[in-house]
Write a structure and sequence with these properties.
- The chain has about 120 residues and is α+β, with helices and mostly antiparallel strands.
- The chain has a domain of about 80 residues.
- The protein is about 25% helix and about 10% strand.
- It is built from four helices and three strands.
- The longest helix is centred in the N-terminal third of the chain and has 10 residues.
- It is extended and about 70 Å long.
């Protein structure tokens, strides 16, 4: 029962029940990216949406799909899959609030104050 209620009301876990119906009745699958996200459009082509795999995170849209989902281009760029450079890294989700989050003084033993407080 709780899972059913989550499907109806909580959009950030997965697709809601309304999105599932919209996808089934009006959606046309355009493609799937290398992360497993599915890209849909309606029959007129005026609306586009994504069904994410796992947690919903807009930063999980790869470069080749970014311009398509934002209506910059109507074609899906496959150039990025053919040409990967060694400096290109795979997607990493937002690390804020985790142990892997960036902190400038995290590994610095000299994390003392660089000033002295004024005393009365």
């Amino acid at each position: 029962m709780l899972t059913f209620l989550k499907k109806i009301f909580i959009w950030w876990n997965q697709e809601t029940l309304g999105t599932k119906f919209k996808t089934i009745f009006f959606g046309k699958l355009v493609g799937i990216d290398n992360l497993g996200n599915k890209y849909y459009t309606n029959k007129s082509g005026k609306k586009r949406w994504i069904i994410y795999v796992g947690e919903i995170d807009a930063s999980k849209i790869p470069n080749e799909w970014y311009s398509w989902i934002h209506f910059t281009s109507n074609k899906i760029e496959n150039v990025h899959e053919l040409k990967k450079y060694e400096w290109q890294k795979p997607h990493l989700s937002n690390q804020t609030g985790t142990e892997d989050a960036y902190h400038p003084n995290k590994n610095d033993d000299n994390s003392k104050k660089k000033y002295t407080t004024w005393k009365d």
